[in-house]
Amino acid sequence: MTAAIIAIALGVAGGFVAALAGVGGGIIFVPALALVLGLTQVVAEATSLLAIVPVAILGTWQQRRTGDVRVRDALIIGVGSVVTAILAAIVADRLPEDILRWMFIALMVIVAARIWVGAQRDADRGR
Fold first, then answer.
1. Which SS3 state, helix, strand or coil, does residue 127 take?
2. Higher per-residue confidence, 106 vs 28
3. CA distances (Å), 75 to each of 62, 70, 72, 81, in order?
4. pLDDT (tens digit per residue) in 56-66
5. What is the rounded distance in angstroms from the CA atom of residue 43 to the CA atom of residue 80?
6. Domain residue limits, the chain
7. Cα distances (Å, whole numbers) of residue 55 to 25, 110, 125
8. Are 21 and 59 in contact (CB under 8 A)?
9. Does this model's pTM top 0.85?
10. What is the crossing angle of helices 3-21 and 26-35, to 10°?
């Protein structure tokens, strides 16, 4: 299978998961780009950031049509994210590959634990 076909499949899976579960496509893109396409962690993360831009724009447009976007909050978060993303990219370029990979793994474990705790709480409430 060519890299382009794999990239298309990753885009479809990432977009579906991002829209369905409300999570960033990076949860799918970064590990897949590193494991399936063999990209380094830094390149996988940078590629994921660019790939998510059209997904975020179109997803936001669709959700805004239904009135589910809090524009003011999103703009505040967005401005803060732009500033820190630039700084974090500089740091990521300087960190050893294995440290960056372990940081990503830790983030995924924390996210999974948080989702699990929330699901348990909802189950306890009978939802």
1. coil
2. 106
3. 17, 9, 5, 10
4. 788 788 888 99
5. 23
6. 3-96
7. 8, 24, 33
8. no
9. no
10. 160
